Amino acid sequence: MSATATAAVSKAGAVKKDSVPEIIAASMVGTAIEFYDNYCYSIAAASYFGTIFFPAASKANPALGTMYAFLTFAVSFLARPFGSMLFGHFGDKIGRKMSKQLGNSPDPLDLIAKYGADGYVTEVTLTTVKVQNFDKTITTIPPYALVSDSFQNWRGMWQSGSRRIKRSLFFDMNTIRFCTEEETKLFYKKGWLKKSEAEEGQAVNLLAFRNFVMQYLGSHPKINHECLQMVRQMEPAPEGLPIEIYCFATSTEWPVYESIQAEIFDYLIASIPQFGLKLFQRPSGVDIIESQTEKKR
Length: 297
Known about the structure:
By secondary structure, this protein is of the alpha+beta class. The protein has helices spanning 3-12, 20-53, 55-60, 62-101, 143-148, 155-160, 181-189, 195-199, 205-219, 254-271, 285-296, and strands spanning 111-114, 117-124, 129-133, 138-141, 163-171, 230-233, 241-249.
């Protein structure tokens, strides 16, 4: 097991299993209910089932109608092994698969993020699924909800060793413009514009920034270069033009992942002014006061 998995197991703890007394008590209750059901059916079969369901045989010979009624009782016992094999197959195929997905194993790395739960599955029983959230609270979920509905499982993320970074920077569209001749030469020299883009004479500063980000991500040591890397322009919004950075960090541990993401965006935000671009930011009280002061001057 990897260091990350070991740390996760130590934090989440071992999966709780049903105790032997609980299993014995559940088996006794089930057996008692089954015995009561058979007892009621046998009394009904001996009393009036023959007359109701086999009237012709009962008129010819009352004992024959009663025998037919008990014969249906016998069929239920003969069919029981075949029923157990059939439904046992589906129980193993579906039930055990769900238990494995939800973390019914010594390796509680399964995570779900739904129904107010966001953490490790620590206990799976017939009636409840307990999730220890990242804030150490406990959320209880009925198992049927996880069968009838979908849930998010983060095991694949842990096993891949990479965690996705997907965040947008919103640019003030008033600052998007064509590059000056000096900027075009500078950006081409640094490799942020291709030769064809620079020679056309209509290179846009936002294009140079996107090429710069791709170059930066491609050389970053904490980015998984085997996974998808992309810088894409999204649909304009009231908050500006979003440029989404899409890549994968080399660590799945939450603090390390957040540190890598912050390092990337700190550098990108600090680099934006050299492209003549500005990020969109709603005006604060200080901005309004400064604007009014400048107007008075």
